[in-house]
């Protein structure tokens, strides 16, 4: 089948130009199937595997229709015209990144709304007036209750990854939000499956929707190659993980728990393989920093929990490794979908111990994946061929240097211990003298830290790998001989007490 361009599908010229500027001229199958209906204003139910191009499939018609005929004239404070609901912060951020350049072609404004961060920026944007909001349900409902946003002017509503919102228990909130939008508005729903109540959303809110599905044979995900590597014991598995992480390309390693994701990222960094983590114990700024380091190529390994299984799109992820096999087949498919995206090829490796083989076989059958288990060691031909060229060893900085660079964190040593002693004695930090009148202090009477100290402390908490760029200092220095030994692990990341969100709510809840 010949390639079909966005121009031939009837996409308006300003958007064709914006897409071409980003290197996008040919449409993917789900875009080819849905755009004629969505551009015409019809409700659409789209089912496609992860990485099949769903974001552009709804972003193009949303901007096209809102950019050419605004409801009730110009933008109004707190009354958006377009709404995209997404289950996680990461997905909301990525959707907005796709929408922004398209919206700019028509002078439309977009913003994100999710939890884990102060609502002040979001409220300011709403008061200034935005045309399209990309939101997580929890925070959006909060702002609706506070009267900062009203949805009675929304012309187009998109539910993205509806099945994942169902898995996270968001459907009651989604239902309330949908009820707040005009009943005659256009609704687009994209989901990999229609279970767990998604079918009820379709029946209740979509008007005679056009169903479009992209099967695996036509999907870019067909370019994904699956491998199952069996290891004899935990020690061999540990060595195999390090080998698989040592290549020159980007790779994502998935773990079941936040603790193990953090621990593995530190272990890899200590072994000369800079890595960052992504999980629910990180605040939104920490997640953003770590994702930015991974996306920019400052680090080539991301160790993540299932919080990254959806919504994290980074170009050219060549390998996904299921270090811990997932609990169910949908998680396997969504984790694996971080590679082989947008028509690129990619490999997926699942590591399995003897005691896990039976459960994994059942999971793979449900996922529709056929891959025979290969007994391997780190030096096996199959492993060596998959890893390819090894990246240069990167020596971690000594622990003390890391603490100084990161501005504290970890155990109460050095400045932290001094600060605690000063607080206990009622004295200023570092001077041994009482606080002078007029000196800035916090509510407890302690002198306030400078902005640079606060910034350094935040860096210390993030655990994000920093690499020498433009001659600046860094957490790591490149070993010229390739034989240097790791002198320490990077400081831990995240705050296990707060977890970057309120207790009792699922990750990505948007509160």
Automatic annotation (TrEMBL):
Residues 236-384 form the Helicase C-terminal domain. It comes from the Bacteria. It holds the Pfam family Helicase_C. GO terms for molecular function: helicase activity; hydrolase activity. Residues 447-498 have a biased composition (Low complexity). InterPro entries: DEAD/DEAH_box_helicase_dom, DEAD/DEAH_RhlB, DEAD_box_RNA_helicase, Helicase_ATP-bd, Helicase_C-like, P-loop_NTPase. It is an enzyme of class 3 (hydrolase). Residues 394-511 are annotated as: Disordered. This is DEAD/DEAH box helicase.
